[in-house]
Specification:
disordered C terminus, alpha+beta, Muramoyl-pentapeptide Carboxypeptidase, domain 2, 10 helices, about 15% strand, disordered N terminus, two-stranded antiparallel ribbon, 5-stranded mixed β-sheet
Length: about 250
């Protein structure tokens, strides 16, 4: 049985086995501590975005990665202009196919630029108050939606509130949650991780991190804040420097 360090090393993308595989994604440079989130590479090193780690990729670079949800006609979207990272969108399409969810699940929100997140944030402040907004709406510049790797989904049978759509644990939504990790997605904000994420439980918000990472995060019940720290520590132990994975 491989050691835990070796196990994480393989997932982290720097074991010989991983390097020999075709891999179009960027590998973090060794011996350097990146302080920005410029290159989202979910299959190599999940990018952490929160109030302490704002998103800094240029709008041009982000835009070059995005594709409209309408590129997959069978995906139901609340707005025809919703876009996601291409790989994220492809895996979402496959996940929805796998659970038979294309008639029962709606994509409510995907990529948001700074202007849209700012509008949502201050609109929520006016309509819902500061306490609610702090729980469910990320600060402009600190939202995972800026990456194009985060998607909010809702049940067709439930209320499709833009900020907090219904996404229950049963039926096709439950099936989506059960198979999400297999397709590279994790529920980003869980109730028992609020003290780490700074966001209240959001059963509708899924983040694409890639299947190898998602499997470990689910198996060990880790939120992204915990997981990227483990990867950083394991990378340092293996003598590859302290890459911060987008921190």
């Amino acid at each position: 049985m491989e050691t835990e360090t070796r196990h994480f090393a393989k997932i982290n993308g720097y074991s010989n086995e991983m390097k020999e595989q075709p891999n179009p994604v960027h590998q973090p440079k060794t011996g350097m501590r990146a302080r920005t989130n410029k290159a989202p590479q979910p299959d190599s090193a999940p990018v952490l975005v929160n109030r302490h780690h704002p998103w800094t990729e240029s709008a041009e670079d982000t835009d070059s990665r995005l594709a409209p949800a309408s590129a997959f006609p069978d995906i139901r979207a609340l707005d025809s202009n919703i876009r996601l990272d291409r790989t994220c969108l492809q895996r979402l399409d496959a996940l929805l196919d796998a659970v038979g969810g294309k008639n029962g699940i709606v994509v409510v929100s995907g990529y948001r630029d700074l202007a849209e997140q700012t509008e949502i944030y201050y609109s929520s402040l006016r309509e819902n108050g500061a306490a609610y907004t702090a729980k469910f709406v990320a600060l402009p510049g600190c939202s995972e939606h800026h990456t194009g790797l985060a998607v909010d989904v809702g049940s067709v049978a439930g209320g499709l509130d833009f900020i907090a759509p219904e996404f229950p644990d049963h039926g096709v939504c439950g099936a989506f949650k059960a198979k999400a990790a297999e397709f590279g997605f994790v529920q980003r904000y869980k109730a028992h991780k609020e003290h780490l994420t700074g966001i209240s439980c959001e059963p509708w918000h899924f983040r694409y991190v890639g299947a190898p990472h998602a499997a470990i995060m689910e198996e060990r019940d880790l939120c992204l804040e915990e997981y990227v720290e483990i990867l950083r520590q394991e990378r340092a132990k293996a003598g590859h420097g302290e890459a911060s994975y987008g921190n």
